[in-house]
């Protein structure tokens, strides 16, 4: 499987202090090198190579059960790679736990805290990583601006 990439900004007017390219420039590229994932005798993914350049958006398309989520889970470290290598930037991360990969994963079914605000849900991962409060505020605001979700801070996720 090889992915093509394209940068897309749907609401550039919502980005405040930093431009999309400035935010994307600090993101590392992601590569899968001849990656295979087996569950016992069943091969879920066989020998895929995928390169997503730094700052690019990528969409994995395919029918249900073809391995899209498995590939994402291997990148994030939630699934072990049977063979091959995962790199973030130039750094091999295949054997690192999820917390050491500096990645995030958004799940198909909402993995949000319904009792928390939109802002607090976005902040949660940064807080768990020990990011300072002032930096969390800046980064959460930037990300919410980026996706056009900067709203009333008291709105919980059940209202969006």
Automatic annotation (TrEMBL):
<dbReference type="InterPro" id="IPR050093">
    <property type="entry name" value="ABC_SmlMolc_Importer"/>
</dbReference>
<protein>
    <recommendedName>
        <fullName>ABC transporter domain-containing protein</fullName>
    </recommendedName>
</protein>
<dbReference type="Pfam" id="PF00005">
    <property type="entry name" value="ABC_tran"/>
</dbReference>
<dbReference type="GO" id="GO:0005886">
    <property type="term" value="C:plasma membrane"/>
</dbReference>
<feature type="domain" description="ABC transporter">
    <location>
        <begin position="46"/>
        <end position="151"/>
    </location>
</feature>
<dbReference type="InterPro" id="IPR003439">
    <property type="entry name" value="ABC_transporter-like_ATP-bd"/>
</dbReference>
<keyword id="KW-0813">Transport</keyword>
<dbReference type="GO" id="GO:0005524">
    <property type="term" value="F:ATP binding"/>
</dbReference>
<dbReference type="InterPro" id="IPR027417">
    <property type="entry name" value="P-loop_NTPase"/>
</dbReference>
<dbReference type="GO" id="GO:0016887">
    <property type="term" value="F:ATP hydrolysis activity"/>
</dbReference>
